[in-house]
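Annex B, item 7. Sequence and structure tokens for protein A, then protein B.
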Amino acid sequence: MTIELDVLTPADADRCAELEKLLFPGDDPWSAGAFRAELAAKHNRYFAVRTTLESGVTLMIGYAGVSLLGNRFSPESEVHTIGVDPSFQRLGVGTMLLDRLLAEAEKHGGPVFLEVRTDNEPAIALYRRYGFDTVGTRRNYYQPSGADAFTMRRPAGGGALS
């Protein structure tokens, strides 16, 4: 199985929405239109991981996006999303995507922020390995489930294992 990382395109929006429904069924998953809007914003960077199946079909198995915010005097970035097809989780796809997001954030400068469900222990552990610390809790952040989120922050220039 080959795995390749490249840029997410508007043609990927339907597949992203399909994966969102699998990954976040109780929390208002993003629509294809939401992904297209994210891709249209100049300050956002989105990436995809694809694999070629034995049948020869290429399938997008993961996606991620980061927003590059602030200005040259006070830059910061925010991880918007990382999603991996459940059939391909625990194979390093999420790590590959996070590495790329953090590379984009490093070029931009400043700290990196994200929100993560407080019960998503594998993601929290991954973020901690990359130098993120919990800086707050957002009660009822995810809707309609009402799940809480941790706000996590990674300092500028800091802490990636890659």
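Protein B:
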Amino acid sequence: MTQVSPTPYTVVVIVPTGVGAAIGGYAGDALPVVRAIAQVADRVITHPNVLNGANLYWPLPNVSYVEGYGLDQFAAGQWGLRPVHRNRIGLLLDQGIEPELRDRHLQAADATRATLGLEIADYIVTDAPLGVELRTAASGATWGTIRQPDSLLRGAETLIKQLGVEAIAVVARFPDDLDSPALAAYRQGKGVDPLAGAEAVVSHLIVRQFQVPCAHAPALSPLPLDPTISPRSAAEELGYTFLPCVLAGLSRAPHFIPLSSLPLQPSSSPQATDIWTNQVDAVIVPATACGGSAVLSFAQSSTALITVQENTTRMQVPAEALGLEAIAVSSYLEAIGVLAAHRAGISPTALSTNLSPLQPHKG
């Protein structure tokens, strides 16, 4: 007979964006990991690039789709998460998208309304081209900038104030670089996603300014057919747009509850279903990418930190270098076993042959 947990067992799954993660650095290739974890946890919290698979996605009722900046604020205890049944989504399109490519994205949005029943408000086009620019750090990690952030924020504000949306999907025109070695490597399941870092900048701006769920889908010219494409990148070869997974994820993304708003706004009064950082039991992260804001915040609490060796990245920031106590595992399969033991109140060392005798304290 399965024992019922006294409180919902909650796990956060983090795979930093644009760092070349071996698992989670491609087109939704960490989704199987989250699907499996969702079977041993009551609640799973993760960020869009872990779940986004372009035209592919998977409905997971106990998984929260939380943008990266919002996840950082949640981990720091500044924001709570409020699960919802549905969101009214606003669609914000970059003026720099060509008419035909814009129509492709609008057709994708209409398709989700007709086939998935999503509620999407009328779309808005930014009042200036956003001007996305891509950058690569010395480590090989990717990032980027936009030349017109004010136009992005004005469009988001209009969606919120005039159309009453509760979540925002952004489609920005990204530079085409068909001959890029980085793109060729990514399509072969190697290297770093050349777009991911810049995508994070777009969503961070909106979430930081307006505290609403947001995710981004890049607009790009279709790539020529390559029969040798890696399965890890293949989801992005299926159509003209990556928008469907973003809209599906945002449709039930939890709302942000800033801690500072609780005494001031009756609509933000605490609810029993709200999730706060002190309710997180475990966080799972690639072993070499422990320097992010969310991981450092969780490390200051009793949350168990599980680091996965197999998920290599371009970063070199292991837990031990930061003085963090972590449970090191070789794979996500092993991590799932640790979660099952942790949830049952069993020390993982009891499941191995390396159980040492107790020693006297030498304090």
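Comment on protein B: Residues 212 and 250 are 10 Å apart (CA to CA).
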